[in-house]
Amino acid sequence: MSSQFLSIIHDYHDPFPDQLGLAMSRLQRMSRGKYPFEIHCYVISDLCKQKQLQTSRGLVHLPRHNIALTERESLLWQRANWLIRLCGDFSMLNDIALKSIRHFCYKLVQLCFLTSILKDRYVMSESIYH
What we know:
Layout: H1 2-13, E1 22-23, H2 24-30, H3 37-49, E2 54-56, E3 59-61, H4 71-87, H5 98-110, E4 114-118, E5 121-124, H6 125-129
């Protein structure tokens, strides 16, 4: 079971390098739900203790896997951050495709810049946690 989870997570990182990892519930579904959730959690916890897996912000990933904004994304975040502070949102970023914005916002959530409150609705994490 441990090797199956490690394999699923490893295989997930390759096509999705911009995603931090998998939620426990999604990992359970990807393992075809063969095991009760309690056993699933125990195995993940054990793999984390062995430093074969890591959890960050509720997502399970390989210890060597991290995400960061690219240079282009950093510039976009600076622009979006300015618009959020000025206007309350960044809907004025109309030169970017909606699909790209969704992906970008999801990444910002994983990096704790934004917090998702509803589908496609975000707030600055600092406004909640500080």
